[in-house]
Design brief:
It is built from ten helices and nine strands. The protein is an alpha+beta fold. The chain has two domains: about 1-85, 434 Repressor (Amino-terminal Domain), CATH 1.10.260.40; about 120-245, Ribbon (Umud Fragment, subunit A), CATH 2.10.109. The protein has a nine-stranded mixed β-sheet with strand order 2-1-3-4-9-5-6-7-8.
Length: about 280
């Protein structure tokens, strides 16, 4: 399906394979391989294709635009897109609303010279700016980037430096590496996630899912001194399921009463031995 749509849409735009490759930021040979079905595009390339063609990612991978009825649909969409681009700006126009929880989302991200997706790091000092730039690829380009080879190759990852002690023993300053969640309604209760919202900014919590029943998430802290609270999905911008963390602070082991008594006994025995010496 993807190879058929790529070839059809490229011809609709009157582009050569070389021109298409330049617009997508990939090698011309890759375009040929994709069109012939000899290779599958990475997620980053699929997103760039959908933006170039003016269609959704879901349409790109599920709809055969080479069929006449669908070809008319894509032509209509391209025409509407062009008309919107030529229309004068209206200051009173409402901004696009956040899709309801559970719908497919397409996010901005960056890739390295080999077309591998980067893990962008959002430090604490960049948290406020991320709320405005999370969907802006140019903003993401200036963030620190790295890769973790042990992570699954499926999915898109981002790293966030967390603040506060609501999720102890994970300390403030720890970097949480999360995988992007496309359908919020599928998050299982108790899953640790980085939740990005217009209301609370970037927070790391355990998510209890009430998207389908109440249109909200309930966020819990591991630290019992912090109370759980609700957040409406209309305020949520992104959800990243925690998959790993990086910290320079090692968790402190909890000492039971029996363990403390054993340590005291050991110290007493060592003192007794020193006195005999």
């Amino acid at each position: 399906m993807i190879n058929t749509n790529l070839k059809f849409c490229r011809r609709e735009l009157a582009l050569t394979q070389a021109q298409m490759a330049e617009k997508l930021g990939i090698k011309r040979s890759l375009v040929g391989a994709y069109e012939e079905g000899r290779a599958e595009p990475r997620l980053a390339t699929l997103v760039n294709m959908s933006r170039l063609f003016g269609i959704t990612l879901d349409q790109l991978v599920t709809t055969d635009f080479s069929k006449r009825k669908n070809a008319k649909a894509i032509g209509s969409m391209r025409a509407q897109e062009a008309a919107a681009a030529d229309a004068p700006a209206d200051d009173d126009t409402e901004p696009p609303t956040t899709p309801a929880g559970g719908q497919l989302r397409v996010l901005a991200f960056t890739v390295d010279k080999d077309q591998n997706e980067n893990i962008e790091l959002v430090p604490q000092k960049a948290a406020a700016g991320y709320l405005n730039g999370y969907a802006d690829r140019e903003y993401l380009e200036v963030l620190p980037k790295f890769r973790l080879p042990m992570l699954s190759q499926t999915g898109t990852y981002r790293a966030f430096e967390i603040a506060g002690d609501s999720m102890l023993p994970i300390a403030s300053g720890t970097v949480i590496v999360g995988r992007y969640v496309e359908e919020w309604a599928t998050v299982k209760d108790g899953t640790p996630c980085v939740v990005v919202s217009s209301k609370d900014g970037i927070v790391f919590k355990r998510v209890f899912n009430k998207v389908r029943s109440g249109g909200m998430l309930v966020l819990h802290s591991d630290n019992p001194h912090f109370s759980p609270y609700d957040i409406n999905v209309d305020d949520v911008l992104e959800i990243w399921e925690a998959k790993s963390y990086i910290s320079s602070t090692f968790p402190i082991a909890e000492l039971s009463l029996e363990r403390v008594a054993s340590l005291v006994l050991d110290l007493q025995q060592q003192v007794a031995l020193l006195r005999k010496a």
